[in-house]
UniProtKB/TrEMBL annotation:
Keywords, comma-separated and alphabetical: DNA-binding, Phosphoprotein, Two-component regulatory system
Chain ranges of the Response regulatory domain: 6-120
Record Pfam families: Response_reg
Name of the featured protein: DNA-binding NtrC family response regulator
GO molecular function: DNA binding
A GO BP entry: phosphorelay signal transduction system
Keyword hit for Aminoacyl-tRNA synthetase: no
Keyword Phosphoprotein assigned: yes
Database matches in SMART domains: REC
Naturally occurring in which organism (per UniProt): Desulfoprunum benzoelyticum
Modification 4-aspartylphosphate, positions: 55
């Protein structure tokens, strides 16, 4: 995996971003955090990311709308959708719209880590 590539986590919940920061740091995953879509689009315009993990339910543009905007800028970006609604419906819709995969909240960290690895492998194959 290219070392200059990073992961971007987009979630409006501060506590969740804090938990995920610890998760990424312990696994030595380079990452940045965004509290919403506009901040995520700003990050995407000035840094190189191979994977985005994005909550579906956010104020303003939701995760699926934000993913669509991100893919206009970087079509090959791999996105893992998070949904806290204990429903796979939003995840499946996201995958139909171009997401790599989805995870339900509360997040199973081992499952998410595996999906990050797979998404990075797919992104590396495109590069």
């Amino acid at each position: 995996m290219p070392e200059n590539k990073k992961l971007l986590l987009v979630d409006d919940e501060v506590d969740f971003r804090t938990i995920m920061s610890k998760f990424f740091s312990r696994r030595r995953i380079g990452f940045e955090l965004a509290g919403g879509c506009m901040e995520a689009l700003d990050w995407l315009s000035r840094d190189d990311f191979d994977v985005v993990i994005m909550d579906v339910s956010m104020p303003g543009l939701d995760g699926l709308e934000c993913m669509a905007e991100m893919k206009k800028v970087k079509p090959d970006l791999e996105v893992i959708i998070l949904t806290g609604h204990a429903s796979i419906n939003a995840g499946l819709i996201g995958m139909r719209k171009g997401a790599f995969d989805y995870c339900l909240k509360p997040v199973d960290f081992d499952e998410l880590f595996e999906k990050i690895i797979l998404a990075r492998e797919k992104a590396a194959g495109k590069g």
